[in-house]
Amino acid sequence: MSELNFSPITMSQSGRRRVVACLIATLAIVATADLATIPATQQFCAYGPSHLAVLVVFAIGSAALVWTGHRQTEPQARHFGRVLGVAIMAIFGVALAYKLVQPTIAQSVPLQLCDIAELTAAYALWSQHTWAATLVYYWGLPLSSQALITPDLNAADFPSHSFLTFFALHLLVVWAAIYLTWGYGIRPGWRNYRFAILTTLAWGAFTLVFNTIAGTDYGFLNRKPANASALDFLGPWPFYVLAEVAIVGAIWALMTWPWERKAVDRAPQEPRNVLA
Asked: Membrane-spanning residues where (predicted)?
């Protein structure tokens, strides 16, 4: 059982209704935003008005989720998590359906690590299992948040379908990681760190083989992106892949160490978190 932070203050019924209503409104916008019916808009520009608005929503939503998580009872947390999990799956389904309208093996297979993170986030929110929640912590915070801050989005600006699904999914994954860790109270440890490393390596090995057979480049594991990127500083293939593994492993270790240290400090009073 994960660590829970309870408080006598609970979310009101009207507060829960507002949260659900906001999620339903977001889903409705995403589901009905068809590029064929939206008037031509300008191309998305990083750090333009729409991107800055997303970052403001991200900051406010993150604080609200931590505040909410600290004030929920366990039944409320379970219900709230399942609502968010269903929202992620619904938007993921809409995004995948659009990709399958004109399917290509290079774009339509949900093999990017962010795709796996989105599915894992939905399951973690629904089940609140530690192994899933900590995977979202490792995948969502450093990777999905990077996509929010430095988006690689070559599409029309708001309210195009691509804009809405891209930012909605990345927002929800990072929010899931924040809510499960700082709101609900699931903390990673070294055992979770090792599990995340092994799971990510397994994804990388499978995707590398798939790319080789299909001629695709999911995860940029077989070649660098055509546009300039940080991978350009890590050398040629396969050295940049090995460098990525080392860098990510080090970052995840730094993300684990504070929680493990806290767990050791409180060991006489509280049981250690385990992989559940």
From this structure: 51-68, 80-101, 163-183, 195-214, 237-257
Each residue of 149-163: pLDDT tens digit? 888 888 889 988 889
Please count the structural domains in the chain. Answer: 1
The residue segments making up the domain with residue 97 are 13-265
Instruction: Report yes or no: 116 and 132 within 8 Å, Cβ to Cβ.
Output: no
Nearest to 175 by CA among 59, 271, 77: 59
Instruction: Give me the sign of the Cα torsion angle 37, 39, 42, 44.
Output: negative
159 cis-preceded (ω within 30 degrees of 0): yes
Asked if the structure places residue 73 within a domain, the reply is yes
Q: Could you report the per-residue pLDDT of 7-23, keeping only the tens digit for each?
A: 333 445 555 555 555 55
